[in-house]
Amino acid sequence: MDAREWIACFSALVTADAERLTRLDSAIGDGDHGSNLDRGLRAAVSALEGADLPPGKVLMTAGRTLVSKTGGASGPLYGTVLRRAGKALGDASEVDAPGLGAALRAALEGVQELGKAVEGDKTMVDALAPAVAAYEAAAGDGLAAAASAALDAASKGAEATVPLQARKGRASYLGPRSVGHLDPGAASTVLLFRALAEVS
Predict the structure, then answer these.
(1) Residue 169 and residue 33: Cα distance in Å, rounded?
(2) Residue 156, exposed/middle/buried by CB under 10 A (0-12, 13-18, 19+)?
């Protein structure tokens, strides 16, 4: 797995989908998820240009950049995803399927520590948690198969947020009015795993 390619692909997918992400966020949040995440990821890609780093350090650098350049909740949350994953990978020059699975598990734990969210709260965790579980279950079949399984689970998890009432984040202030909307963080989490599947 080329971590730099993963970040670049994630950035490109978010850029292409930024309007939809912001539209989703306009319905139940601050209306800036797509634009904020797009800006942060572009900065992360720039920060990695020309840097000769092992995968873990690539993710940590991208995560730090996201935190410093991205407004709203997406900077701290995706920054945590990438930094925790990068820390778990350490200085290893190569990443195998089980190693990335452990890194993704660490990323999920970091997000849950930060946001105090569980599955069913209508947050990115609704896509991230099933994706990590599916990845781990398929890791023995290799990175490409595990990434594909994770993408499928993330997509289903994101869709499952539509009928939920938000219990965390800005959307929770809307109460019952948050029902019927796709969570924007879950939607962008699908793009994270689509990017992983594309580069695996």
Answers:
(1) 13
(2) middle
In degrees, to the nearest 5, what angle opens at C-alpha 154 toward C-alphas 153 and 155? Answer: 90
pLDDT tens string 121-171 = 999 999 999 999 999 999 999 999 999 999 999 999 999 999 999 999 999
CA-closest candidate to residue 168, choices 146, 193, 186, 187 = 186
User: How would you write 105-139 as a 3-class SS string?
Assistant: HHHHHHHHHHHCCCCCCCCCHHHHHHHHHHHHHHH
Question: What six digits make up the tokens of 109?
Answer: 């734990």
pLDDT digits (tens, 9 = 90+) for 3-53: 999 999 999 999 999 999 999 999 999 999 999 999 999 999 999 999 899
Cα 76–chain centre separation = 11
- Check: CB of residue 81 under 8 Å from CB of residue 107: yes
Whose structure tokens read 């399984």? 149
Please tell me what DSSP assigns to residue 183: -
Q: Which residue has the tokens 């820390």?
A: 87
Residue 86's contacts (CB-CB under 8 Å, 6 or more residues apart) are: 3, 55, 56, 57, 58, 59, 60, 61, 62, 63, 103
169: left (phi over 0), alpha (psi -120 to 50) or beta: left
Domain annotation for the chain: domains and CATH numbers: 3-199 (1.25.40.340)
Contact status, residue 124 vs residue 188, Cβ threshold 8 Å:
yes
Say whether pTM exceeds 0.90: yes
Residues 17, 194: contact at Cβ < 8 Å? no
